[in-house]
What does this fold into?
Amino acid sequence: MKSWNEIRKNAAAFSKRWKTAHDEKSQAQSFLKEFFAVFDIDAVQVATFEHRVKFSDGSQGYVDCFWQGKILVEMKSLGKDLDAAFNQAMEYVRSLPDISHTPRAIVVSDFQRIRFYNLEKDCALSEFSLKDLRKYVTLFGFLVGLEEISEIQEQDPVNRKAAEKMANLHDAMKETGYFGHPLEVYLVRLLFCLFAEDTGIFKPAQFAQFISQKTSDNGSDLAPQLALLFDTLNRQTRLSNLDETVAAFPYINGGLFAENLPMAAFSSEMRKALLDCATLDWSKISPAIFGSMFQGVMDEKSRHDLGAHYTSEENILKLIKPLFLNALRSEVAAICALKGKIRSVRLGEFHEKIAKLTFLDPACGCGNFLLIAYRELRRLEMDILEEMYKDDGGQFLDISQLCKVSVSQFYGIEIEAFPCEIAKVALWLMDHLCNMEVADRFGQYFVRIPIKASAHIVCDNALRLEWRSLLVGSDGVRSDGVNSPTPSLSTFSYIMGNPPFLGAMRILDEQKHDMELVFGKNQKMLGELDFVTAWFKKAADFIQGTATRCAFVATNSITQGQQVRALWRSLNVDINFAYRTFKWKNAAKGVAAVHCVIIGFHAEGDKLTQSSESPQSCGAETSRTSRETKIIFDGDKVVEAENINPYLMDAPSVFIESRPDPLCFMPLMNFGNMPRDGGNLIIEADEYERFIEQEPQAKPFIRPLLGAEEFLHGKKRYCLWLVNADLTLLRNCPKILERIEKCRQMRLSSKAAATRKFAATPGLFCQITQPEGKDYIAIPRVSSERREYIPIGFLTAETKVTDLLQIIPEATLYHFGILTSRMHNAWMRAVAGRLKSDYRYSKDIVYNNFIWPEVKNNSVSSVVKNITQAAQAVLDARAAHPGATLADLYDPRMMPPNLVKAHAALDALVDKAYGLKPTCTDAERVAHLFKLYADRIV
It folds into this structure.
């Protein structure tokens, strides 16, 4: 009697052989004979074809295939009505001469669709396609004495609900006192068993039936029974008197069930929760869901503190395609275009090449990047095998021997033990899912158990671990202690991943120490760097002198503001592809949006493939060429670049330094005033009228006060402004004096010495930067990313501003025109820092480094005159909408046509002043400004 794995293998081959069958008359009998042969049944010996049946009215019909007491099959040509076929089959059953002849099942099919009706269970229906036959072979177990333990049910795909069920089980076990490493391993084992019974590693429902039949409803004996099962799964040689239900489980190996765990304890509710998990279809698990599932089980707080996060499959593919997959697929396409014997030789060489590639994720978490990369490499291998053997009709002696890509090519480092265990198991599961894909494509089903090849996942601190220790040394022992025949390697082909996203202000002391180990204690501005930058530095140091290619997902802040200079100057790398800022779409529960970039890089000067360990061309266009194309992905746009600088612009690799004064001879920009008053010198809009009514003599000491919110949204706010105040008048304002005293007390009680110092002048703002009697341009320090232009404007000297605005005293309309132009806004978007995704305008980075157009004489230049007039036209266009705020006017959904037109006219004049064409893009504007900047600082 054949095993289920042999039957599945036969079923896969049968599906492939008959994938084009369609005609009942000419193909039905051959189809059915081979179908029964899948189960090692000679249909001619047990069944009758065209079996005659007499109906009650005296007429007769002919059953396509009938096995008395077992099965009745009715075939139809492709596309015919299967409901009608079933009704016809039921008429045959009702007309059988003896009830004992009644079959247990009816099957109707049009070759490509198969319907199985269980007559012993009220005609319970299972419908599936021919290509999925191997998944449903157990329905026919009764034909060969392999009775189904229970009906196979159509199951819901594993989704977030499954994660929540596992999380509930986790919490319930933890409440009993079962926690830490044992609990983590226990859950991973349970997940493996749930997956195994839905994917052919175990028999269908074998694990669920083991629980339901071998354990008590109250759960009292579930833990010892699971302990017995786990021990059995780890043993190749088993006791002769072992319970046959347990003995029926296969030997797994791979270390998953090797560790002796403390005995758990289950209740009836916990047992039911586990059985509920088994009702889901775990064969449909995706690696993306798998990773988020178990991160959802982790404690929410510790997950955030450790920087753990889940990457969607969409974002993983964004990284791995330009890192290696696109180039490999292009190389395959070039090889396939060759003719004759050389084509076969090159395909074979390429197959060997991809089987030697190595991949490292030094912050692998639950293994999502490794999983998707492995799956895509396996799919590429399947394409290669199809090309290599298509002239042979796709026939193989043993497809399993031709699949050379292995999980052992994949390496990971993860600081937390639980995700580390998940990553190991997930790669086994992904390997099995890929084997199932192979079966679908090539018609040969196989299962790699016992497990022999494993990914090299190490539980360690990636910033302290020497990454080369992961590779096999001369003694044949890896850092994870596993003996391996793999030759010693000195580097990886690719390094990739999604390191933790902690911002500089949220880094813990221990993590600061890690960063010091990577950068060195003398690294300038180390306190400005996000935690993710340590992985960039560690990888950059590791790949020097190699052809290794790297790519990481990171927060966009590492390509903006002061972090650029602090990080990228020390890396000695070239950027070969980049995704500009995009929103992180995360399916994990409760995780806020993050704004990210993806950056691919290699050692500086690595233009050709030099290392014998790195990917080589196989006679066609190589994935590495002497003039490598650099790509920038910006939303839906894909742009080829001459050079990608650390700001992710196609421009020279220069660093925008923080400088106190403008690089060009222009008016100084200052921060607004800083109150630091505890709100005591501020009068809110709803207080103002009452304050003046109660103390009208205070009015000369009150000024309008604007921050960014008030400036943009037209809101009112006021402040006490006592610079050069007349003390005799002030003495008669008790409400003002009361507020001054409260401000003094607040400053005296401050922990900051600098604030306490200002208690000596409690009636004044701590920092007053606004010159008296001078009008000025105001620019918000933070502005929405949605706006095409940062709204700026003129304010009078009477209006005071907080430090949420920046000011340029004595600025002219010409200055306003340049600063509100698309040219300046494009520069700002390229070099400014961000608060989440909003632009953070810095005077020291954005304004002081901006290169203004050269004009011969500002007072008489026609350029200045034209830009001045266009700037006034922008102000006039605004004034035509008196009820609208700046936020309204510059909302991209509402921007008035006259204002759009005025800005377009201004932009054209500014572009012309820089010598650019009217049709230039923002990328061209920024590239031009970077070149001007590079020329200026040389």
Q: What stands out?
A: The two ends are 82 Å apart (CA to CA). The mean pLDDT is 87. The first helix runs from residue 4 to 17.
